[in-house]
Amino acid sequence: MGTLAGFLARKQIRTDADHFRAWVEGDIEDINGVLKITQIRVRYDIKVPKDKAGHAREAMEQYLPHCPGAQSVMGCIRIHHDAGIEEGNGPP
C-alpha cells in the first residue's frame, strides 16, 4: 500500500483510511510436498474527487514496478492487482 500511496500523493490524492483500503488474499499450494504461496491478489478501494479518477488509474498502472515487496517476490509468486475507484466521494 505504501508505494501506491506515494504515487497517489504525487497526484494530490489523499490516502487516509476512509478513502484508501486494500483487500489481500493468497493461495498456498502443495508443490512436491512443500507448501508454497503461489498467488497473491490485491484489491484496492480508492475514493477520489471526481476530477482525480484518471490520475488514480495512472498511479495503479505505474506503481508496481517500484514496489519493493512486489518486486521481491515476483517471479516466484503471481501477483494480481486491481482497483475499484469511486469518484465524487473522495476528500478535496
Secondary-structure class: alpha+beta
What is the β-strand count? Answer: 3
The CATH superfamily appears as K homology (KH) domain
- Enumerate the strands of the largest sheet in spatial order, edge to edge or round the barrel: 1-2-3
Our measurement of the CA-to-CA distance between the termini, rounded to an integer number of angstroms, reads 21 Å
Element pattern in H and E: HEEHHE
Oligomer: single chain
Q: Output the CATH class name.
A: Alpha Beta
Q: Mind telling me which CATH architecture this is? A: 2-Layer Sandwich
What does the radius of gyration come to?
15 Å
Question: Can you tell me about this structure?
Answer:
There is one protein chain. The longest helix is centred in the middle third of the chain and has 11 residues, at 53-63. This protein has one domain: K homology (KH) domain (GMP Synthetase, Chain A, domain 3, 2-Layer Sandwich). The protein has a 3-stranded mixed beta sheet with strand order 1-2-3, with helices on one face. Helix 1 crosses helix 2 (53-63). It has helices at residues 2-10, 53-63, 68-73; strands at residues 20-31, 34-48, 78-87. The model has no long low-confidence stretch (mean pLDDT 93). The chain is 28% helix and 40% strand. It is elongated. With 92 residues, it is α+β, with helices and mostly antiparallel strands.
Give the tags.
alpha+beta; 3-stranded mixed β-sheet; GMP Synthetase, Chain A, domain 3; 92 residues; 3 helices; single chain
